[in-house]
Write a structure and sequence with these properties.
The protein is built from 20 helices and 2 strands. It is mainly α. A two-stranded antiparallel ribbon has the order 1-2.
Length: about 500
């Protein structure tokens, strides 16, 4: 376990370099190498997940500098779950890109793809806030190019909004960490929590202001109200495999709130203990309301899926804001569910757009098209999963969150918002399915656009994961309960990072 924590970062980093040099051979060589590297990353993360389950986590101090003076990487239950989730989603997205030849328009697609994984994995593993900023910038630089991958005025416009808003967020990030470093004298997350627990009363307000500024930055990454407006346009107009991979991008912001605010302003923070939770709860509720309205008003399927991603983020923010271990456990379960289902839904929407020809993914009456019954059945399964209806995993995740809300102060508001928003989503998806698959026009000839059946495989593989979350709900929920309890054990996390000779957790 000495060096394993850094492997998920090194593999895509060196992989990006190898793929870059592979372009002198052929595009197929790049494809094969990128696919092999991503597959290897999946198996690596499965092994790391098993290792954390059986032997506990691990910390890695770069350059052998002791924490908090060096750069710390932290491999625990939360980070390894996010690593595995990212690699599985990336493999399905890359699989779809290769099948549809979307990756063939630019020789640098696979390089950017690996760099994106490098940045995301680094953000999940880092144990200090400054390097979280560094990895944020790496993944954002790669995402800028991937988002604009292709052509079109609308894609460029949406990409420009995405770039500008994230540049503003990066500036605020630097202001926030500069202020915190000036007061606390450290940016190691565990050591920051230790310093906040001993904070002088004169500095409480300054640290609280910097913490809220940092919450704005993470809220921007997560698309939290009122900073969500960039997401629907950006996700709906980029290419399908990129949109599917971006289903994990908003979760980076959610993860950062859990990891940074949940630790620094956790149980040991005194006056500032969980001061951010009410903000996260009420902004999450507002985000969910607007996401539900956006889902109902969407004119195209990809746009609707983008609003569903926003709704899933809002549900996670509510779980964090409820501020109970049971709600957080449900949020972690729901995070896995919503990420894989949203990614698969983007891939399915693109396949439907190919089958419908000139009508693309617009939500309107069309003539019958190829593979209509099968694609309609798959759409129904994804709709059930995204709406949080039984028997798929979204229902279990929401029930766990709502059960955790019973211990909170705002149970009535949470229940009303989540259930009513869920009803609106069900109505919207029912209308979409009816218009695309049922209310067809017989005045025009049959649409003869065809796609290979293999184009459905990546989406179906992600849907299968949702089914597995149901089949193994008990052991998975037991694991998320343990991770949630660990996240509330701020002192245990501090000891784990600052005293790495202790047994792994």
């Amino acid at each position: 376990m000495t060096h394993v924590a850094i492997l998920p970062i090194l593999l895509p980093l060196f992989g990006a370099v190898m793929v870059l040099f592979a372009k002198v051979m052929s595009h197929k060589t790049q494809q094969a190498l990128s696919f092999a590297l991503t597959t290897l990353l999946v198996f690596l993360n499965i092994w790391l997940f098993y290792t954390v389950l059986t032997k506990g986590g691990a910390t890695y101090q770069l350059g052998n500098w002791e924490a908090p003076f060096g750069i710390s990487l932290v491999l625990d239950g939360l980070s390894v779950t996010m690593l595995l989730l990212t690699s599985v989603l990336a493999l399905a997205s890359l699989w779809y890109a290769v099948i549809t030849k979307i990756d063939g328009a630019n020789v640098h697609f696979h390089v950017l793809f690996q760099m994106q994984l490098f940045g995301i994995n680094g953000a999940f593993l880092t144990g200090d806030v400054f390097n979280l900023f560094v990895f944020f910038e790496i993944l954002l630089i790669a995402s800028y190019s991937l988002l604009l991958y292709g052509h079109g005025r609308e894609r460029t416009k949406a990409g420009l909004h995405y770039v500008v808003i994230n540049l503003v967020g990066s500036t605020l990030f630097l202001f926030a960490i500069g202020t915190l470093y000036g007061i606390l004298g450290t940016l190691n997350i565990a050591d920051m929590a230790l310093q906040v627990s001993k904070l002088h009363p004169d500095n409480v307000n300054v640290v609280a202001a910097a913490g809220l500024m940092l919450l704005v930055v993470f809220g921007l990454k997560a698309a939290m109200f009122p900073l969500y407006f960039w997401l629907p346009g950006a996700y709906a107009r980029t290419s399908a495999p990129v949109a599917a991979l971006f289903a994990i991008m908003t979760k980076v912001g959610v993860y950062s709130i859990i990891r940074v605010h949940g630790t620094v302003f956790g149980t040991e923070a005194g006056y500032l203990s969980f001061f951010h939770a009410p903000w996260v709860l009420f902004l999450g509720i507002l985000t969910l309301v607007l996401a539900a309205f956006g889902t109902m008003s969407a004119k195209a399927l990809k746009e609707q899926v983008a609003y569903l991603v926003l709704g899933s983020v809002a549900t996670l923010l509510i779980a964090i804001g409820i501020n109970t271990p049971q709600a957080l456990s449900g949020g972690l379960y729901y995070m896995v569910h919503s990420t894989v289902v949203a990614g698969g839904f983007f891939l399915l929407a693109d396949t439907l757009a190919s089958l419908r020809g000139k009508y693309s993914d617009s939500i309107e009456k069309t003539p019958p098209f190829g593979r209509m019954i099968f694609s309609g059945s798959v759409f129904f399964a994804f709709a059930v999963a995204m709406a949080g209806m039984p028997p798929l995993s979204g229902f279990f995740g929401k029930m766990m969150i709502l059960s955790g809300a019973l211990e909170g102060e705002h149970v009535g508001l949470v229940y009303t918002t989540v259930l009513v928003a869920g009803l609106f989503v069900i109505i919207a998806l029912t209308r979409t399915g009816s218009q695309i698959f049922y209310d067809t026009s017989t005045d025009e000839p049959f649409l003869k656009e065809q796609v290979r059946f293999s184009q459905f495989y990546p989406a179906l593989s992600l849907l299968l994961i949702s089914a597995c979350l149901v089949l193994f709900a008990n052991p998975i929920s037991t694991f998320t309960d343990q991770v949630a309890a660990m996240l509330y054990d701020t002192k245990g996390y501090m000891d784990f990072v600052l005293h790495p000779t202790m047994e792994g957790r």
